[in-house]
Design brief:
The structure holds 2 protein chains of 2 kinds. By secondary structure, chain A is α/β, with parallel strands linked by helices. Chain A has 21 helices and 11 strands. Chain A folds into 2 domains: 174 residues, 3-Layer(aba) Sandwich (D-Maltodextrin-Binding Protein, domain 2), CATH 3.40.190.10; 196 residues, D-Maltodextrin-Binding Protein, domain 2. In chain A, strand 4 and strand 5 form a beta hairpin. Chain B starts with 13 loop residues before the first helix and ends with a helix. Classes of the chains: A alpha/beta, B mainly alpha. Chains A and B meet through helix 1, helix 5, helix 6, helix 13 and helix 20 of A and helix 1 and helix 11 of B.
Chain lengths: 445, 306
Amino acid sequence: MNSATRRVISVTSAITVMMLLIVLISGCSQATQGSAGGTQSKKLSETITVLAEKHPWTTAIQPYIPEFEKQTGIKVNLNILSEQQQRAKSLMTLQAKSPDIDVFMSLKSLEGLAYEKAGFYESLDKYIKDPTLTPADYKINDFMKGPYDGERIEGKLVGIPIIVEGPVIFYRKDLFAEYNIPIPKTLNDLVAAAKTVEQKSNGHVYGIALRGLPPAVCYDFGPFFHNMGLEWLDKNGSLNFDKPGAVTAINTYCTLAAKYGPPGAVNNNFYQDSSLFAQGKVAMELDSSNELASIIDPSNSKVIGKIGVFAIPAGPGGNHPTVLQWGISMSAYSQHKDAAWKFIRWATSPEMQLKLALKGIASPRASTWDNAKFKASLKSTVKKEWAKTLEFILKNGNPEVGPPAVKEAEVRQVIGNNIDQVILGSETPQAAANKIQQQAMEVIK
Amino acid sequence: MSAPSIKGGGVASYPRLRKVKRDDRITGFLMVSPAVVFTLAMIIFPIGYAVFLSVTKWAPGSSAIHFVGLNNFGRMLSDHVFWSSFRVTMILFVACLLIETIIGIYLGIFLSKDIPGQKVLQAVILIPSIIASVAIGMMWIQILDPTLGFANYLLSVVGLKPLAWLANPDTVLQSLIIIDVWQWSPFMALIITGGMRTLPSEPFEAAVIDGASKWQIFRFVTLPLLRPVVMVAVLLRSVDLVRFFDTVYIMTQGGPNNASMTLNVYSYLQGFNYMDMSYGSAIMLFLLLLVMLISLVITKLRGRTS
């Protein structure tokens, strides 16, 4: 190889590297231009990024987004990920204080406190109060108390609810009639009902399917705890698992799961619960109201036409169902806050929430439930009972799915693990309550 | 490389010589730069960042860099879930590797024979290894469901009592081992089949002439010749096994009661679910060391055999 060839090679490579660098740099500068937004181009083509989870709400609203883009001239970049990925992405992006996300779906009952303390949420109070940003026809007071309060963290409004759900009990009307079981009025009645089913069916049908997968337990177990008259935390922020009611709650839940539930309940989540119910293996399913869609799906359900719905019955401390709302929030680091608010306002307007409700999305707005068109859409008895139960949950619901903590997921895991120990028979309810009190407090403090 | 041809000589040519040498160096750097950049960006940086995270406090909203020294590593020592995850990881690693190697060798030798339909058989057997693990997890959840699953139906047909499979702390690891063996033995077999086909036929012929039995041929001819290939398969599989994640995460999330929690799943939970990236990174670094150590041991063993 002579020096001339060598020179040619080195010059060519140098040019290539230079060109690569130029492309890189120009790419970066374009990006900064785009995000800084010249005042001129801002009105013409502003783009917001909405980070959403693969969720029925997202599927339902997606087709309407072009309407919003046409109305406002704001382009929406909808980024859809699965729940875990969506949470990981929002956490990483916000932690980096990156303006890449403008609006994101967020589960306040899980990450709300941690995100709020970290300063990730833009406060929406000022947008709501400003009549130029929020016209009166938005009807903020139309939102039901449970879900709306759930979007408020330490007094600050950090999101607007988009869909509500809560644990309800789906039951087999035919079996209840055959075995002469009345609709349970108390938690003890519920245990008795489950027992009757197992006895009278000679063990062919299990009493009740409920969640046992550790991180998912709190969602189903919460009402048992609250119905003993207990909040998760007392006034001093200490857990209430050292109260006698807690042991009763654990005992009731675990009796249902271990004695009258299907084998292997400790691994079950909504997916397994609904499969068991849809296949006719259990007489009751305690799970999310959202599960209605899968148990009345003709392609995998054998029990269509035999399903009824009732709320989790009361305990000695009253009836306090869990209400869970998903909300959309604005990133504190967004550089398109006005456009982001326009999107949030549009997506949660009374008109849009009615449109979504007609597609099966449970609305957090009271007006939707009173709407004649919506009522007319609930044709079957099961849908009517479902709507009635959800309304009850919305009005009486407790938005705390688990004990509010910065490390909420870890606290829920501790509770789930110990409840599973009782279901598996390796721990007494009393020992589980003691352990939860001690282990979870270590996480909370 | 040929020596550079330099015209002329003496003092006058020195600057030119230096220039050529410099050009040479620049060219060299430019040639390797893509690999260097890639290594820096994709390997060195993430590991460096994990080390950085593990000695600082990373919690949502914490912007100031707050050094905590070796606290996260100290926390591991007293964390019983960490130790049980370590134990579970090692049990899965040893059991799966052993069974998969044995089945892999057996299947591999079988597949290397020229039997009718061998190609089709090979393709069919390989299916489990090419399906996405998430799909495999979902499929096995259904098969192993205690009430609705096919596995318990089979047991009931032959008159055995149903099992809770993944839902019982005493059977969850065995269930995971069955699934992993089902999924990855064909992969081992494929590598070994490839190795079998490259073996010379003379030693086998010689053994037959010497009157060796089938077992003797296998034990004293096939196995020693195959050993380098088997070791490669073992090395590849080991690295994956120590990082056991996807099927566990899909099927049990480490439950019931942490009975199937592996180090990788635990680290993921700490980092992304409990939002403690620092502790998660510390566990990951431990896992990295473990993987390196195991690879080192296997590489050493491999070196000795060849």
